[in-house]
């Protein structure tokens, strides 16, 4: 028998992949080393290259043996990778970050030869000074660490020692023990002292070995939290990352994974503190989502945990800060539209030349028709987004409210179709509902795609903020248009009938019906803001989303004008 | 300055990870070898372990040099990995599949020593007989291939040669050239001959090197398709996979990636033909989704392309087969409810003892109250799912129809709340809308979770099939209940008032209002089926989804009965 399958070519999203090179050992069991690095890069959508410094035979119970890679091969690997992904590019190269794990003397030497050229190419280097594996095996000797300190660490972007490693590094460099950490203050001082000693740019000292209590002293009891301290030398600033202590045996390779998650996020262009937040969260999820532990010792974590969709979603706190910020504004809507990053865009949008041209009868009518067609596409999408809002609503009344809005949007669509459009011989069935007709333009498609993406990943508040510029902007644009409206008898490039159509359009968006919808929407947004305990990062995200949509609105009208 | 971030512990989905071991070379540039394997395993959510046979220094322009791993280390790696993830398990072990890529003589020997024990443990072995890299470098010599043929391939689950490799293997084994393939028939014969010669269980010969024309002859012009042929010896069956020829330079490591994608899907328990379909689709997406090529030679593909959510979505054709299948049924609804895998479950559901007990007045009233509470939770979720249906609807009228259904469900919710429940002193605010009250039971939660998952990943038709058992099943259950209804004066364990409530409940689901909704839903489903060109795999998926939901409905009532 012969069975035949014909595969379709299904389109998929295009991506531009940033690249990270990991220089580290291979962990045959897949939980640490370059294996953990590659899995972590994959989780964050970053392309990974490797320079394997040693092959280990190990499993979750320990390292059985290892073989070091020769200097010659390391040299060849570094040249092959760096030529093809960095040095030979004249424009922006794909390689953004180099991350190191287990290093041998051979690897340190070969890598250090590349440093001057790497500095020229502005690659960020993240060094995870691995000394001992989770299972207790020693992975580098003191001579290796000295080499590392003397040849590599100075000037690198970030090093990520845990507490024992930080102490060891201090000892190697300063030739004396650092006093034992008792409190958060001590811990911060250790981070700064170590940075000053090593001269790296930033240092993240991980506190997994010394849980703290609620008073920020090293914990003596069980109820404890983990603190990681980042010291940034250029700002002379500390950043404290507090998180819950996760009681889990799925922690093999957690150090490698944290450092490579940070490297991946840096390669994607994220700020250092955001990168660390996303990485700590990733480790937490990885350590608490395996239904069944793998292996008989300390097992690997789950590298397939989904990274947080946003920074704000993994952070507590700072509600008071937000309240203070918003208290200077009449409403959240006012805060958004007058925000420094939004204000000018908002004005450009609601006082758009397209609206001005309508109001002054100087808009060529075919551009208005094009706009109506685009708006038809947009409204269909806008209705669908409210379906997504309905599915994420916090209670059934809100779900119902979104369904009602869908009904209103459909009314608007049919109004377009039946009342306005039938006068201009546009056959919607012919034009849109079969493949031969007008397609949405780029501006419309970009806008719809953005809303759909937001709709799929955001919560109810996020979706409502993303649909807000359309609802409220049209009310403001209508008011603006009316305020500068020329008498319809003062005709520009349109006929008297066409001028009347323009008047109707302006009237629609200043009608009681629309003014009411605008007001209701603002009230609903305000209630939502009051019901959600926002942190500052969340406010930033909402502002950014609102701003993106405002830019898409401007582009929507630009496209019509520049037809 | 000190900034403090407090991280929350955000719950994430738990997973049980199947494991694949790859025995292959390392490609430092990250596009092929164990790097490609690990990235591919990650894309499919499978845990990867490694046994690195050689380290190569290579980039997209070629292999510069390589160093082989010693026999001793390979032995130790295999022992460490297999002990910890396979041999020492008494129950089901996590390691499911072993996949090989570039092999050295050392690796072949060490691996072959493990074969008897691996056979005992029923691990599937997939051998990708890598000989030459995409960039043209020879990766194994003839002696190595002979060893492979003599010691490894016999009895393995699958080998995946491309056309030149298939010919080379034939030559090695039979000592003579296989005639050149001119047609699909020749290609099928080659696959079968090679299987009989090598004695592996299944063989997939990849046709990337010999595109075919529309008449299934080797193409001489440009318009061509790719055919891969699977020969399954145990069934004496061929499976043909036809796909478009992708003109792309992003193909470094495509062979490794295909084999590891197949291995990953097998590890997840997928059938061989389904695994191959998903893998070919993955390669296609990977080869056509990089915005910017990586490296200066043939670049790696995009391993972060999202695998297809379903088999049916990547297949053309077989519409006639589906029409023939469905023509034996009055309606798609009839087809679903009488399908061999559904029929008994459907009867169990619509004639459920819970309904019987209501009809016969033998249901303890507290169980009925528990059911109403659970139903309240369920309906809120059911409304939200229709929001997702609205967002995926094929046109705005359907979007509107889903919004209308949300309105109807909300009416039903409020009816529950205000009419029925107020008589039993259940304070919904206290019970549900704050944290202290009754939570949804396991059956309700499982059902809601399933629907939400379906709602997020499925298209409109899929969602409508998933919500169908509830809508139509309650109509049938109501009719069933009425047909065996005892006179309310013949009381069982309930009071006369309570019996009246039971009567009202049965009346609701046999009312004109509900009968109408039931009928409209069936008509809508039928139209949808007629508007979609389904293939057989899609029909299978819809049946499976419908059946899953029927089982969840049964469990929903079981939980109430077994309170």
SSE order and pairing:
The structure is a homodimer of 563-residue chains.
Chain A: E1 2-6, E2 19-27, H1 33-43, E3 47-59, E4 62-68, H2 71-87, E5 95-100, H3 105-120, E6 124-127, H4 142-153, E7 158-159, H5 163-174, H6 184-198, E8 202-205, E9 225-232, E10 237-244, H7 254-267, H8 272-287, H9 319-327, H10 332-338, H11 343-350, H12 353-359, H13 365-392, H14 396-420, H15 428-433, H16 442-457, H17 460-483, H18 496-510, H19 512-531, H20 536-561
Parallel strand pairs in A: 2-3, 2-5, 5-6, 6-7, 7-8
Antiparallel strand pairs in A: 3-4, 8-9, 9-10
Helix pairs in contact in A: 1-7, 2-3, 3-4, 5-6, 7-8, 11-20, 12-17, 13-14, 13-16, 13-17, 13-20, 16-20, 17-18, 17-19, 17-20
GO molecular function (chains A, B): hydroxymethylpyrimidine kinase activity; phosphomethylpyrimidine kinase activity
Protein name (chains A, B): Phosphomethylpyrimidine kinase
InterPro entries (chains A, B): Haem_Oase-like_multi-hlx, HMP/HMP-P_kinase_dom, PM/HMP-P_kinase-1, Ribokinase-like, Thiaminase-2/PQQC
């Amino acid at each position: 028998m012969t069975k035949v399958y014909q595969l379709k070519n299904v389109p998929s999203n295009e991506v531009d992949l940033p690249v990270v090179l990991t220089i580290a050992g291979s962990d045959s069991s897949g939980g640490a080393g370059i294996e953990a690095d590659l899995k972590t890069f994959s989780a964050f959508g970053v392309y990974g290259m490797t320079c394997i410094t040693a092959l280990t035979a190990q499993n979750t119970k320990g390292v059985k043996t290892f073989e070091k890679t020769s200097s010659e091969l390391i040299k060849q690997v570094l040249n092959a990778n760096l030529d093809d992904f960095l040095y030979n590019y004249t424009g922006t190269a794909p390689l953004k970050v180099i991350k190191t794990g287990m290093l041998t003397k051979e690897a340190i030497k070969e890598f250090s030869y590349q440093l001057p050229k790497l500095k020229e190419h502005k690659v960020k280097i993240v060094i995870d000074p691995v000394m001992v594996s989770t299972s207790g095996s020693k992975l580098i000797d003191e001579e290796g660490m000295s080499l590392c300190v003397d040849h590599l660490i100075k000037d690198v972007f970030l090093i990520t020692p845990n507490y024992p490693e930080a102490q060891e590094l201090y000892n190697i460099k300063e030739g004396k023990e650092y006093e034992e950490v008792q409190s958060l203050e001590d811990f911060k001082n250790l981070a700064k002292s170590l940075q000053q000693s090593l001269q790296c740019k930033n240092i993240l000292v991980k506190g997994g070995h010394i849980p703290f209590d609620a008073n920020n002293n090293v914990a003596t009891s069980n109820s404890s939290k983990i603190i990681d301290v980042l010291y940034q030398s250029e700002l002379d600033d500390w950043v404290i990352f507090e998180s819950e202590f996760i009681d889990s045996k799925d922690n093999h390779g957690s150090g490698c994974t944290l450092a490579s998650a940070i490297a991946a996020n840096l390669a994607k262009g994220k700020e250092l503190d955001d990168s660390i937040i996303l990485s700590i969260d990733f480790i937490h999820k990885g350590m608490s989502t395996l239904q069944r532990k793998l292996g008989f010792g300390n097992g690997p974590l789950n590298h397939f945990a989904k990274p947080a969709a946003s920074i704000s979603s993994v952070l507590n706190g700072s509600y008071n800060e937000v309240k203070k910020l918003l208290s200077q504004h009449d409403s959240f809507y006012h805060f958004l539209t007058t925000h420094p990053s939004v204000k000018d865009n908002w004005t450009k949008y609601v006082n758009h030349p397209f609206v001005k041209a309508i109001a002054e009868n100087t808009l060529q009518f075919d551009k208005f028709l094009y706009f109506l067609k685009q708006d038809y596409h947009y409204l269909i999408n806008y209705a669908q987004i409210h379906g997504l809002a309905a599915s994420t609503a916090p209670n059934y009344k809100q779900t119902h409210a979104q369904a009602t809005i869908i009904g209103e949007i459909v009314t608007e669509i049919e109004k377009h179709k039946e009342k306005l459009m039938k006068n201009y011989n546009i056959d919607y069935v012919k034009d849109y509902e079969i493949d031969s007709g007008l397609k949405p333009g780029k501006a419309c498609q970009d806008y719809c795609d953005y809303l759909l993406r937001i709709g799929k990943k955001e919560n109810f508040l996020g979706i409502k903020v993303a649909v807000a510029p359309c609802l409220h902007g049209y009310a403001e644009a209508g008011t603006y248009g009316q305020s500068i409206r020329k008498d319809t008898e003062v005709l520009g490039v349109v006929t008297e009938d066409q001028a009347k159509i323009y008047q109707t359009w302006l009237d629609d968006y200043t009608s009681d019906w629309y003014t009411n919808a605008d007001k209701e929407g603002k009230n609903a947004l305000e209630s939502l803001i009051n019901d959600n305990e926002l942190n500052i990062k969340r406010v930033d995200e909402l502002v950014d989303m609102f701003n993106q949509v405002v830019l898409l609105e401007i582009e929507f009208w630009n496209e019509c004008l520049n037809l």
